[in-house]
Amino acid sequence: MTPQPPSEDPKRKAWAESMRTIARYTNLGWTIVAAVVLGLLGGRWLDKQWDTDPLMFILGAVFGIAVGLYHFLASVLRK
């Protein structure tokens, strides 16, 4: 007698699909925060190196926001 594969439970399949969808969007907030913080820290460091206080800090913030927004939109619009 050959073993039978377990039957596909519709509830379990729907739950697994929901978890896959949720997992795709879970880290978006942290990604945006990380991009902005890294941009700010990089701008602060460049300001200290080049004595351009606060120019690079502001440019770093703008760059971090742009990168975070780009990643957010790329993740959300991807199917």
UniProtKB/TrEMBL annotation:
Pfam families: ATPase_gene1 (PF09527). This is Uncharacterized protein. InterPro entries: ATPase_put. It comes from Candidatus Entotheonella gemina. Keywords: Membrane, Transmembrane, Transmembrane helix. The chain crosses the membrane at residues 21-43, 55-77.
